[in-house]
Structure formats: structure tokens, C-alpha cells
Design brief:
Keywords: Aromatic hydrocarbons catabolism, Endoplasmic reticulum, Hydrolase, Membrane, Transmembrane, Transmembrane helix
EC number: 3.3.2.9
Distance between the termini: 59 Å
Catalytic activity: cis-stilbene oxide + H2O = (1R,2R)-hydrobenzoin; 1-(4-methoxyphenyl)-N-methyl-N-[(3-methyloxetan-3-yl)methyl]methanamine + H2O = 2-{[(4-methoxybenzyl)(methyl)amino]methyl}-2-methylpropane-1,3-diol
Order of helices and strands: HEHHHEEEHEHEHEHHHHHHHEHEH
Number of domains: 1
Membrane topology: Single-pass membrane protein
Subcellular location: Endoplasmic reticulum membrane; Microsome membrane
CATH superfamily: Alpha/Beta hydrolase fold, catalytic domain
Number of helices: 16
Number of strands: 9
Shape: globular
CATH class: Alpha Beta
Helix content: 40-55%
Radius of gyration: 23 Å
């Protein structure tokens, strides 16, 4: 009798511990940050708050320099995958024959601006379409790109968001909805200035973008973050300035296992529970079947470089600064790593060569890769307290089919305390805005529509 009693007590105790792990939600105090800083080496000066139009105008000599250097370099052969080697050679030929002026003209069809914040001139797109009638509502939407990404990644989705009726969308119960879209080049990226003072990180990025929106007189807006770092900064912004943001929509966010002790325990328990499913999950990856129930494995997190950024950013940056082929190979390999499970799949099967080449040119012509790696190094490897920030405003999450990571609902709720929905997109990876723009636009519209309806009622 006593042995049964003891066994029952043990079982009940274990069950209680497991239950407490799953229902426990960490509650961290709000992150406190400095209200201001200055990111140039010279003496701080008052920012010029003028907002002026910006037109991309790259000198032909810079484009020629890229092509001349690239032509003298060669990609390192893989020795085992001739298909991939052939693809890299094709990419090199596309880059050598790339008509930058033509693509520059297309990029300039989007209205672009610059303004100075904390000593840095910040580049951003601000795109809207006049509403078709008085019943239409224009809603501000701030979009964050990630790494290695840029505003270019949204050229397919911006027209849908700003002029939905033209693309077959009809959202809004009480009034039609369309967006005014703001897409900044994050500080240190593309046409935004590069910080010259040490220590610039995600916290400074979020604060600067908050100041940008305030300067644009947009004090209540929705936020969409994507491509890893873009989701992280969007999360941080929503945590720091919750009264300014009406809702947060994220593509493929990741909650670090070290977010809290209970979060780590949830990952560990799920990893043990998934051991019997490993074979099936692997088969799903190999056949391309739906893997929505497959969460990122704890061991996978600690051994895979897709979750990490280089710690020796200065050395990497110096190499990329002087090597077009190195820049191209890094961006290409990172995109592949974040876009497909399948090693035999090349990027030209997922994106057009023009889309890949434009990203590479943007990063090279603006010296973005060295700057971006330094900022990521500072953000994730030195000053990572911001990764424990929590969001209390309404949040929606979408995961795409080929996302490199995935978090379960109970883990997402550790960080996003007002998680309203999780949706699944049928195709794409981290850069799915280029692969299936209509679906991600539809998901953003649906979330915003429900939030506005709830607010009005």
C-alpha cells in the first residue's frame, strides 16, 4: 500500500512540475534604455530634422570596379556538387552582365527620403496610394527588413499593401483598408549611414526608428518584422514603445532557448518528446511535406550556425570589403540556408537571378556587409540583454513552410504575452515576401483588420 502511495506521490509531483513549466509565463520588467546618443566620432551636434527626397545615383565607375574585381576572382569549387558549381558560375555571369542603371531606375520608382537622427542620415521608403473613396482608411505600416536583406525584398508586396483593390484584395468590414508603408534601411545598412562609434546595436536601432516614426508624425501604427534580425528589432521596438504601436505582425520569429529557465525547460521537454518523431520529421523535410508541428530541436539550436552571427566581424568585414565574390558567396549561402531545407536546391530555383543579383549589388555598392556584421556582433554577442524584452501589445505570427526555425505556441507566449494568432504560409522561407507576396500581404491585412474591428467595438 505504501509503495503505491509513494508511486502516486511521485507521479503527481512530476505531473505538477511539468504542468507548472508549461503554464508558467516569465514576466520581466520593461527594458530601460538611454533616451539619446550620437553615433559619429566627431563632437555631437544637433540633428538636422529636415526630411528630404532621396534618389539612388551610383557612379558608373563603382559598378565597373565591382565587375572588374569580380572578373579577376573565382568561386572556390565544391569538389562534390557540380550542379552547385555550375549555378555559381551562372551567378557570376549574371553579376558581370548586370545592368545596374536599369535596376536603379526601377528602385527609384519608390518614393525615398532621408533624415538625420542621432548623427546618422536614415534612408527610408514612404509609399502610399490615394484612397479610392472617402470610406477607405489608410493605416500606417512600418516594415523591418533583416539580414542579409534590404528594402528591395519588399518590392513585390509594397504595391499590394498600398493599393490592395488593384491586386484583388478587399479588406475592411466597416471601411476599406489600405496601408501607407514605411520601410527604413536599418542604420548601418544600404543607404542609411554607417555608425562610426563603437557599440551600435539593436537597442540603438529600435530607438532611432521610433524617432523616425515620431518625426513623420506617425504616433499610432502597425509593425511588421521579418528575416530574423528584422523580427528581433520589431519585437524590441514594440516592447520599448507599446503606446505608439497598434499591433505587431512577425514572420518566422525565434524565441531563444535561453530566454528564461522555463523556456529552456520547455525546449528540453519537447526535444525528449520528439525523439520518436525524428524519423517522420526527417522524411517530411526530405519530401517537402507540411512540418508545422516540428519545432526547432534544442540540439539543433546549439550546433547550427544558422542561429549565430560571426564573432570576429572585423576580420570577416575586411575580407568582404575587398572581395565581390566573397560578398556574393556569403549572401547567396546565407539566403540558401534561410530559404530551404534541401542541400541540393539552388537559389535560382527559389528566386530569379535578378532578385539575387540586386541584393548582392546593393550590399556591395553601399559597403553594407562589414557594417552589418559589426552591428549584429555587438547586438547578439556583446549586448544581448534586449533579447529578453517582452511584448504586451497584440501580436500575430506567421511561419512559412521552409522556415529554418519554428517555435511552439507556448514558447512564443513566453515572449509575446498577447499572442492573438499563429498562421501557416504554404511556401517560402525567410525571404518569402519575394516568393509569395500575396499570401503574406493577406496575412498582414487579416491581422490588422481584426485589430481595428476589435478597437472600434
Amino acid at each position: 500500500m505504501s509503495s503505491w502511495f509513494f508511486f502516486s506521490v511521485v507521479v503527481i509531483s512530476i505531473f505538477s512540475i511539468l504542468l507548472s513549466i508549461y503554464i508558467h509565463k516569465p514576466d520581466f520588467p520593461p527594458l530601460e534604455i538611454d533616451p539619446d546618443d550620437y553615433w559619429k566620432l566627431d563632437d555631437p551636434e544637433k540633428d538636422d530634422d529636415t526630411i528630404y527626397s532621396f534618389t539612388i545615383d551610383i557612379k558608373e565607375s563603382e559598378v565597373s570596379n565591382f565587375k572588374e574585381k569580380l572578373e579577376s576572382e573565382r568561386f572556390l569549387p565544391t569538389l562534390y556538387d557540380t550542379n552547385y558549381d555550375n549555378y555559381l558560375n551562372e551567378l557570376k555571369q549574371v553579376l558581370l552582365g548586370f545592368n545596374w542603371k536599369q535596376h536603379q531606375h526601377f528602385l527609384n520608382t519608390f518614393k525615398q527620403y532621408k533624415t538625420e537622427i542621432e548623427g546618422l542620415k536614415i534612408h527610408f521608403l514612404r509609399v502610399s496610394t490615394p484612397p479610392k473613396d472617402k470610406k477607405s482608411r489608410v493605416v500606417p505600416l512600418l516594415i523591418f527588413h533583416g539580414f542579409p536583406g534590404s528594402f528591395w525584398d519588399f518590392f513585390k508586396i509594397i504595391p499590394i499593401l498600398t493599393n490592395p483593390s488593384r491586386h484583388g484584395f478587399d479588406f475592411g468590414v466597416e471601411e476599406a483598408i489600405q496601408f501607407e508603408v514605411i520601410v527604413p534601411s536599418l542604420p548601418g545598412f544600404i543607404f542609411s549611414d554607417k555608425p562610426t562609434k563603437q557599440g551600435f546595436n539593436a537597442i540603438a536601432t529600435a530607438r532611432i526608428i521610433a524617432k523616425l516614426m515620431y518625426r513623420l508624425n506617425l504616433n499610432n501604427y502597425f509593425v511588421h518584422g521579418t528575416e530574423g534580425y528584422g523580427s528581433d528589432v520589431a519585437t524590441l521596438l514594440s516592447s520599448l514603445y507599446p503606446t505608439r504601436i497598434a499591433g505587431l505582425h512577425l514572420s518566422n520569429p525565434f524565441v531563444n532557448p535561453t530566454f528564461s529557465t522555463f523556456t529552456l525547460a520547455k525546449y528540453a521537454l519537447k526535444a525528449m518528446g520528439q525523439k520518436d518523431e525524428d524519423r517522420e520529421n526527417q522524411e517530411n523535410r526530405e519530401t517537402g511535406k507540411d512540418n508545422r508541428d516540428q519545432m526547432t530541436d534544442l540540439a539543433d539550436y546549439f550546433k547550427q550556425d544558422k542561429f549565430a552571427y560571426p564573432t570576429n566581424s572585423q576580420a570577416f568585414g575586411a575580407a568582404f570589403l575587398n572581395s565581390p565574390s566573397g560578398t556574393a558567396k556569403y549572401i547567396e549561402s546565407r539566403w540558401k540556408q534561410l530559404s530551404t531545407f534541401f542541400a541540393e536546391t539552388n537559389l535560382n530555383e527559389l528566386f530569379t537571378m535578378d532578385e539575387i543579383a540586386t541584393e548582392i549589388y546593393l550590399y556591395w555598392l553601399t559597403d553594407t556587409l562589414p557594417s552589418a556584421l559589426t552591428i549584429l556582433d555587438s547586438s547578439f554577442n556583446f549586448e544581448s540583454v534586449w533579447l529578453s524584452s517582452q511584448v504586451r501589445i497584440p501580436t500575430a505570427v506567421s511561419y512559412s513552410k521552409q522556415t529554418p526555425w519554428r517555435c511552439s505556441k507556448d514558447i512564443l507566449e513566453d515572449r509575446y504575452l498577447n499572442l492573438t494568432r499563429i498562421s501557416e504560409l504554404p511556401k517560402g522561407g525567410m525571404f518569402h515576401h519575394l516568393q509569395d507576396g500575396h499570401k503574406i500581404a493577406e496575412d498582414i491585412f487579416s491581422f490588422v483588420e481584426l485589430q481595428l474591428l476589435h478597437k472600434n467595438n
